[in-house]
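Hi V.,

You were right to ask for the full record rather than a summary. Here it is.
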Amino acid sequence: MGFFAILLGNILFLTSVWHYSILRAGLAVTPGPLVVAVVSGPAGRAAERVGFRTVLLVGFGFFAGGLTWYATAIGLHPSYVTRWLPATLITGLGIGLTFPVLSAAAVSSLDIERFGVGSAVNQTARQVGGAIGVALLVVILGTPHSPAAALVNFRHLWAFAATLAVLSGLVTALLKGAGRQPHTSIVPAPGEEEK
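Predicted structure:
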């Protein structure tokens, strides 16, 4: 919910409070997704070595930290390099460590023949969460009548998303089993065809 809320919320902030054009706002948020693209692959490999829980906890920590940076450091006056960019990079690092690993963890304990169903359920849950997150974004932002009031509402949005990241980390910490579960292969091993 928090991810989808800030995905739209950050663009709305840049265009309505800092008065960026749509193109400039899109470019301003681009470093975050670039970090996600760079980090996702290594995050998956790290999860195979040290387990899902460890990587997810680190990821949720960065995700919450980046969102907290937004909530506490961003002001009414544009300050892209010193305030926005660091928050975007930290948040992108957190997303890169969590999203792909969450998808793998969601199906890791399933038998191979159930991967498709497990993945579909995971994606459905993600989409429902996204819809709820965007709906809550509308509620949190409301219709402020001044830039200062809008900033307060955006800070509430970032704090809300950071709180959800922390809660996700707490749920992750409570999960049993830190790594991939072995799966029974549906393809027989060499010499096992007759058995």
